[in-house]
Specification:
It is built from 5 helices and 12 strands. The longest helix has 15 residues. It comes from Oceanospirillum sediminis.
Amino acid sequence: MPLNTDTTRPDSTLSVIQLTDLHLLADPQAEFKGQYPWQNLVRIIERIGQNGWPDLFLLTGDLSQDESEASYRMLFDLMQSTGTAWYWLPGNHDDTTLMEQLHPIHQSVTLGQWQWLLLDSQSGSPHGELNTEQQQWLQQQLATPQAQWQAIALHHQPLLVGPERQGNSHQTSMDDDEHIGGIDSIPLRDQGWLWHTLSQYPQVRGVICGHVHQAHTICHQGLTLYTSPATSIQFASGINEFQLDSKLNPGYRQLYLTTDGRIESHVCRLS
């Protein structure tokens, strides 16, 4: 499969690639809902390497579908083979104990003039939450940044992405609302705390998340949320339910971080 991508890299930037929702299985030949997750990932990594490795890979959760040691081991070996810095954070499908046995789960990564803050939104349920300790840590990092610019990565979407509510924050009244279906029924449930907090700090330039299996760029309160296609299955957007989109191929998000605080981004897909 060739890869549809613009390989032009702006001058004086950091290149970051987001891989998300890999849903790997212990058997590398296994099928998952019509896709072959391991084969997809290998093809994507091969094509990225042909175009030139980024400065950083960020893997934003749901890395394993069966939470097997073998699936994490395969992923670890593949990422190590790139020779590129890489960091991962868990999604609702992941086993953090197995992850940390292979590779640390870091909270902060500083690269040049940029600091990435990596949040763990696991709640023990399909939806996401940020516990009090993590909220306090984040507020401290925002008040005393380690670089000129900051960006945030987490698994669950902090803004809703569905029709007629895109860009809204989760509210408690939505939890049992039968009119809110699909991936927006299991977002980051924080009553808008994260987005409200981040929007108060001008050095925060963007947020990336996984979980939605869709590509969106959503601007709200002066801050932009970037969601990414999965390297496995894709969910149909613009509808109020879970439905696979067989017309869209697996992919990832490319981000370029500039020295003056801009984020330039596009989505790349296998074709």
